Amino acid sequence: MSRLTLIGIGGNLDSPRWGPPRETLSAALDALAEEGVTITARSAWYRSEPVPASDQPWFINAVAAVETELDAAGLLAVMQAIETRFGRVRGMSNAARVVDLDLLDHQGEQIETGALILPHPRLHQRRFVLEPLAEIAPGWRHPVLMKTARRLLAGLAEGQPVERLPG
After folding, report:
1. Is 85 an annotated catalytic residue?
2. Does the active-site annotation cover 105?
């Protein structure tokens, strides 16, 4: 299962063009598909408290498994171009945003450059990533920690409220 390419999807601000976060994030997934990135699975949508906790709106999150001919850097460039097209403004870390596309894992590769770290350096600490990831790929194994998504999720401390949304 470590040959998967996994993308985290999140946002907590309405888009003037696409509307509330759930609709905006669905449109961002459609935009990925238009760039030749095939979505092979998507988790349910989850609502989660901002991390770190703040007074900004709660996030809508999901995880998608994808297939692509792009290498990790090429996929990241496509994802960042989509974020920009959707109105993402990069500024403060952990700020509210219309859309956030995170490359979580690209076929088990371990990469550390100025622009890209794989696997995503905090995915194993975040319930809003691990809940949807364990839903679509419970046997996925973290390339460094060698623990499955299910085991990483079970090992998280209490906190980081996450709720699965219907539909």
Report:
1. no
2. no
Cα 133–134–137 angle (5° rounding)?
Answer: 80
Cα distances (angstroms) measured from residue 125 to each of 52, 95, 96, 152, 160: 12, 18, 20, 8, 10
pTM of the complete model:
0.94
Please say if 88 is a catalytic residue: yes
The single residue of 42, 47, 100, 105 carrying the catalytic annotation is: 100
Active-site option among 3, 42, 55, 88? 88
Q: Which of 22, 47, 71, 102 is catalytic?
A: 102
Per-residue pLDDT of the chain (167 residues; tens, 9 = 90+): 447 899 999 999 999 999 999 999 999 999 999 999 999 999 999 999 987 778 899 999 999 999 999 999 999 999 999 999 998 877 777 778 999 999 999 999 999 998 899 999 999 999 999 999 999 999 999 999 999 999 999 999 888 899 999 98
Backbone φ/ψ region at 39: left (φ over 0), alpha (ψ -120 to 50), beta: beta
Q: Catalytic: 102?
A: yes
Domains in the chain: ranges and CATH: 5-123 (3.30.70.560)
Q: Which of 47, 97, 127, 141 is catalytic?
A: 97
| Amino acid at site 5 | T
